[in-house]
Every structure is written in C-alpha cells, then in structure tokens.
Amino acid sequence: MAIINRIDYYGIAIILALGLIIATFIGGRSLERMRSADNGINVKGVAEKLITSDLASWRGQITLMDKNLANGYDTLQKQYKTTVDYLKSKGISEENIEEGNDDSEEDEEEIEVTKEH
C-alpha cells in the first residue's frame, strides 16, 4: 500500500510541475506582448510603393535622486531646460516638445518629442 501511495504522489508532482511550467510560459509571453505593444508599428496589407515617414515620436526620461527635495527639483528643472535647448538646437520646435510627469515617481520628468517634415 505504501508503494502505491508513493507512485500517486509522483504523478501528482509531475502534473503540478508541468502546470507551473506552462503557466510561467504563458505569463512570460503575455508580459512580453504588453511591453512591445507601446513601442511598435503594426502594418497590415500590401504596399505598392515605398513610403517615407514624415512623423517621428521619441520619449525620454530624466531621473534624479537627491537627499534634499528642493535641490533635487531645481537640478531636475535645469536638466530639463538643457534637454529642451538641445532638442531646439537640432531643429525641433518648442510646440512639438511635450512635458509630462510619470505618476509613479515624483522626481522624474518625461519628455515626448514629435518631429514632422
């Protein structure tokens, strides 16, 4: 009787292990698809000619850590201004530069740049 119970436990262990492996695989693929959804272009159909894009969008993030909140915020604003000045020097107009703030962190600035030709 003890041998039969041991065999039953091995069967249950193998089934649980396979279930865990399959669940991990499915979860990993789902996370991979979620992350790539924001950063890609999906094209369906057949193109008859080559198309040159006239729109580009870049996202950037400035992250800063400082023990003093006021000093950190001042430094963050200087870095943001330096970044915007650099983008302007490269021909991107100020109305195409959008400032955003990531809600998850207080000391991060997010910049989205759009350039049209």
- The chain-level mean pLDDT equals 78
The helix content, as a percent range, equals 40-55%
Rg calculated over all Cα atoms: 26 Å
Supply the number of structural domains.
Answer: 2
Basic shape: flat
Topology, element by element:
Elements: H1 2-37, E1 55-63, H2 69-89, E2 97-100, E3 108-116
Antiparallel strand pairs: 1-3, 2-3
Note down, in words, how this protein is organized.
The protein contains two helices and three strands. 0% of the residues are buried. It has two domains: 1-40; 55-116. A three-stranded antiparallel sheet has the order 1-3-2. The mean pLDDT is 78. It has helices at 2-37, 69-89, and strands at residues 55-63, 97-100, 108-116. With 117 residues, the protein is an alpha+beta fold.
Name the descriptors.
117 residues; alpha+beta; 2 domains; 3-stranded antiparallel beta sheet; 2 helices; 3 strands
Short description:
The protein contains 2 helices and 3 strands; from the N terminus they run H-E-H-E-E. By secondary structure, the chain is of the alpha+beta class.
